[in-house]
Design a protein that fits this description.
The protein is α+β, with helices and mostly antiparallel strands. It is built from seven helices and 28 strands.
């Protein structure tokens, strides 16, 4: 019921090296065939994978958005690859050299209007079934990205460009960062030795690391992908993660919630977004501010105070997503009316032994677990639900945030979690048309 109330509340609210002593460095700018990194609108005119043709009798895509597509299809790797290759050719995409096709895997790179795109098909391990993955890498000419003076070309390809230098990893990373900032690239999180930057709807990955078998030299590697949704972020962020599969941006910041809200009001207004309320709406322990644009898309800014910091979740939903949410809520309300006096079927879920602070109601189970353990728990649940005949509808499992839902007719169970890597992970199971209960016979190990 809390899930339904939350959704209804949302809808109501809507009504690289330090510079040398001389200071010299390469001053090339990253430009594309269209003059600058693409916006989502520009990219959609070239190719929108939301309506890209799928192989006949393919399963519902795990991921299908403007910038990416992933799904499972019947057929051999070669047949599925040839089908998608032909559809790209139909849309005037040119196949580049060095394509590879075998019985187990196939891949190719295509280009059109300055954009690059990867097509990968590989065996699932099950006879007659293949996985398809298509990624739009955007329109940035990687060879024109700035690099520190003295860096020499190491490798050049359609979707990545590498350079090698004698300077240390730390100095090179700092120099690349400074040069990219000077060219208008905005910091957009880190992951290990990779720093991410954003400009319009292009997400750039700059990896700076020790070059293997190169005598201690440093290698710079640039690659890029198109973002299905242009989600801006303020400069002062920690642990930023963007997930294109769920159209979500997650980060912590020391800025106040008031400053964060004002940043998004100001920044989003430039793209035609308008807040639906004057002030954020308090729902439970979170504050929400909803934005809509002329296309009736919805963007939700969710702010939570955690350990003196603001924890921010920014989520985009298309007009179609919102309409589907409204339909589901209406159907759920009608279903509840019909079954108000009818006992709900029970679904037993095994909890891990490490589960702490467990809160349990008929429609919801919440608990905490040590960081890094929740994905293994989710995998166990996936096996349990599959064995019991449940269908897996939506899967988006990232390291820090994730969600998965299962259905069996009108019965639905969803799982969501937040795992910052610092505090214990927070896990929530929600049931619709079922009564959730903890398995009595044993607990998950």
């Amino acid at each position: 019921m809390q899930s339904l109330a939350r959704s209804r509340s949302l809808l109501l609210a809507c009504s690289a090296v330090l510079m040398a002593a001389t200071g010299a460095c390469s001053a090339q700018s990253a430009v594309s065939a269209t003059g600058s990194p693409a916006t989502t609108e520009e990219a959609a005119k070239v190719l929108n994978l939301v309506d890209f043709p799928l192989v006949k009798d393919a399963e519902k895509p795990q991921y299908q958005r403007l910038a990416g597509l992933s799904y499972t299809a019947p057929g051999t790797v070669k047949d599925v690859f040839e089908f998608q290759r032909a559809r790209l050719s139909d849309k005037k995409w040119k196949e580049l050299p060095a394509s590879y096709v075998s019985d187990q895997s196939a891949n190719a790179t295509f280009s059109r209007s300055g954009f690059s795109l990867s097509l990968m098909v590989f065996s699932t391990g099950q006879a007659g079934v293949a996985n398809v993955s298509i990624i739009n890498h955007g329109n940035v000419d990687l060879s024109k990205l700035p690099v520190p003076e003295g860096a020499k070309p190491f490798f050049a390809g359609p979707v990545s460009n590498s350079y090698i230098t004698e300077t240390s990893v730390a100095e090179t990373a700092e120099a690349c960062r400074k040069l990219l900032l000077e060219k208008g690239w905005q910091p957009y999180g880190t992951a290990g030795d990779v720093s991410f930057f954003k400009q319009n709807a292009i997400r750039l990955a700059a990896r700076v690391s020790s070059a293997p078998a190169q005598g201690g030299k440093t290698v710079i590697d640039y690659s890029a992908t198109l973002m299905s949704t242009d989600l801006p972020a303020p400069a002062d962020t920690e642990n930023l993660q963007y997930a294109d599969t769920t159209a979500q941006l997650f980060f912590d910041t020391r800025a106040s919630q008031r400053d964060v809200a004002e940043f998004y009001r100001r920044t989003l207004a430039n793209a035609g977004w308008e807040a639906t309320t004057e002030n954020p709406v308090q729902i439970d322990f979170k504050k929400l501010l909803i934005f809509r644009n002329p296309h009736l898309d919805m963007l939700t800014l969710e702010m939570t105070e955690v350990d003196g910091k603001s924890r921010i979740l920014v989520k985009h939903q298309s007009a179609a997503d919102v309409a589907e949410l409204e339909r589901q809520i209406q159907a759920e309300m009608e279903q509840r009316k019909m079954e108000q006096n009818k006992p709900l079927p029970k679904v037993a879920v095994m909890l891990p032994e490490e589960a702490k602070d467990v809160e349990h109601s008929k429609a919801r189970i919440e608990f905490k677990i040590a960081t890094g353990k929740i994905k293994a728990v989710v995998e166990t649940w996936r096996k349990q639900f599959a064995k019991d005949g449940w269908k897996e509808d939506v899967t988006a499992l990232e390291d820090m945030i994730g969600s998965i839902s299962f259905s069996k007719g009108s019965q639905k169970v969803s799982v969501s979690y937040d795992d910052t890597g610092i505090l214990p992970a927070e896990v929530t199971l929600r049931g619709t048309g079922v009564e959730l209960e903890r398995a009595a016979e044993k607990r998950q190990k």
